Amino acid sequence: MTKRVVTLGEIMLRLKPVGFERFFQSPTLEATFGGGEGNVAISLANFGLDAAFVTALPMNPIADACIRFLRGYGVNTDHITLQGERMGIYFLEAGANQRPSNVVYDRAHSSISTAQAADFNWDAIFENAGWFHITGITPAISESAATLSLKAVQEAKARGVTVSCDYNFRKKLWKYGKSAPEVMGELVKFVDVGIANEEDCQRSLGVSVSEGDWEQGVSSGELDTARYQALAEKMFATFPNLKYQAITLRESFSASHNGWSGCLFNGNKFLVSQRYDIKDIVDRVGGGDSFAAGLIYGLHTGMTDEDALSFSVAASCLKHSISGDVNLSTVSEVQKLMAGDGSGRVQR
């Protein structure tokens, strides 16, 4: 039996204008819930794994609705601590064509930002756990959240649990006086599986390769995979504890049209996935989380490295067709896309 996957982080109320409207173009906002580690937990539960999400939420009806939301997708919420004053909020304006998406955060003094490591029962949290996932978003929220994040990965490693981390640099969040590399450099020393996009390694950890221009490559749709191999190898040299380094490869032709693929380095082989051309994107928020969940699912259930990478990229490709933060694709749908069935024909 596959052991439980545990994730820890902040889940927020997500408020978004209808469709592709600008903020308050009309007086309507769609209210859902989302956040990196919670998105991963929902994806994994949707894939049939035993997944638990750990966070802190206030005692109010909005938090109650959020917990029902998580439970509705089969996520274990037994280790959510009820404390603090408020739930974080983020506002999303979905971009289209040449207009980019925009995110506005309202998460200062949220429950997770004031939570302490002593508020959580680590023995109970990691009971029967085989995998723990966190992101670089949580340590960016506050100094206490950074301390909590470091304690969580230390507790996981002390129990022999595999640890994954999506480095997830968020420049709008690092405001409490410490830099991302200063904090993340300590946390990643306890990580087995690192996950990043084209710039996370540099901005979150200060690890970069000098060749080429990342921004130019991403915006032009011309990605040089040799640069990514050099970056993954440098990550292994900087953090010898790593067993895998995955990097998502997004080519942003516009907000509505992206190329999507990924690569994976295991210390010996550098693997590059199939590339998907995604047009008419419905919602790209959570795309990285769906990639992380797919990779965790593949590696945790014993797939080959090649198949785990293929599964993660196909899963995250499908996420771009689903509104909201979370990926609601099934294992069979992902497998069909992996096998080449991307026609979108009605299934009868």
TrEMBL record:
<feature type="domain" description="Carbohydrate kinase PfkB">
    <location>
        <begin position="261"/>
        <end position="321"/>
    </location>
</feature>
<dbReference type="InterPro" id="IPR029056">
    <property type="entry name" value="Ribokinase-like"/>
</dbReference>
<keyword id="KW-0418">Kinase</keyword>
<dbReference type="Pfam" id="PF00294">
    <property type="entry name" value="PfkB"/>
</dbReference>
<dbReference type="InterPro" id="IPR052700">
    <property type="entry name" value="Carb_kinase_PfkB-like"/>
</dbReference>
<dbReference type="GO" id="GO:0016301">
    <property type="term" value="F:kinase activity"/>
</dbReference>
<keyword id="KW-0808">Transferase</keyword>
<comment type="similarity">
    <text>Belongs to the carbohydrate kinase PfkB family.</text>
</comment>
<feature type="domain" description="Carbohydrate kinase PfkB">
    <location>
        <begin position="4"/>
        <end position="207"/>
    </location>
</feature>
<protein>
    <submittedName>
        <fullName>Sugar kinase</fullName>
    </submittedName>
</protein>
<dbReference type="InterPro" id="IPR011611">
    <property type="entry name" value="PfkB_dom"/>
</dbReference>
